[in-house]
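ARCHIVE RECORD
Type: protein–small molecule complex
Small molecule: adenosine-5'-triphosphate
Source of inputs: curated submission
Record status: active
Notes field left blank by submitter.
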Amino acid sequence: MTLSVEVKDLTIRYGDTVAVDRLTLRLAGGKIYGLLGRNGSGKTSVLSAVSAFRPATSGAVLVGDAEPFENAALTRQICFVRDRVDAQDTDRVTAVLRMARALRPNWDEEYAQALIERFRLPVRKRISGLSRGMKSALSVTLGLAARAPLTIFDESYLGMDAPSRYAFYDELLNDYMTHPRTIIVSTHLIEEVGSLFEEVVILDKGRLVAHEETEALRARGVAVTGPADTVAAFTEGRTVLGDQRLGGTRSTTIYGQLTDDERAKARYAGLDLGPVGLQDLFVHLTAEERP
Ligand SMILES: Nc1ncnc2c1ncn2[C@@H]1O[C@H](COP(=O)(O)OP(=O)(O)OP(=O)(O)O)[C@@H](O)[C@H]1O
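STRUCTURE (tokenized, with ligand):
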């Protein structure tokens, strides 16, 4: 089972701060979405409203076809995972797992135990005795083993070391393949996790900047690689997103698409053309002053 998400004209205010500004967004069920945005762009606020952790100031949120706020039957189907554990500091890991087992209708105990082993979690310790990375690993364990039809990871792997993060990406993808559901991952580690996303949503200052399939987004620009002088001549006058040199070779990432004629000329000149990195595009699309 998967759940779609629809956000209609959503505004979230904290006093004078407008965190989300009339946002409209539709996410079909059964995909992995990346939610990107600079600090304070409203990601957590939107995700909190979708998960029923806070009401909208105005506008509407629908999960499936129902409003999640104060809807206990629906919120059991939504798992919102942060980098901390929603439990008392004095609780032991075993008690937190027991609670999740009782609350989550699709909980898979065998899978939870496999994840605990993979992340080397000390089950007898109290939450207060876990390192920051261990707390994150416990959170993602709860998120994965819950197999909720809508699962949201909000920078939930902060503090996890690189092997643990890659183990998480690996588990996320494999478990999603065997148990399809709707997954939203909010992250600043774009290059690291970007290959998992089927669609990418970019927010800036509480507004939607882009919502596209990852491949379509990456096709908004071109990475031109080849002999430094030839690359410089070919990319002159274009909007440059990134530039790298290694010896006589240069790779310049430009914004905008090339015509068939331009592509043919580039190849004739011995240049390689490739898609753009999500990170470069993200920086460009959320830059203070867009060219
Ligand atoms: N509880 C709160 N009280 C007051 N202002 C808040 C509160 N929560 C968020 N904000 C403000 O709302 C705006 C959006 O914050 P939000 O946490 O949704 O952004 P974010 O994109 O998740 O940021 P980050 O990437 O830094 O986690 C920011 O200006 C923030 O200061």
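CURATOR ANNOTATION: The two ends are 43 Å apart (CA to CA).
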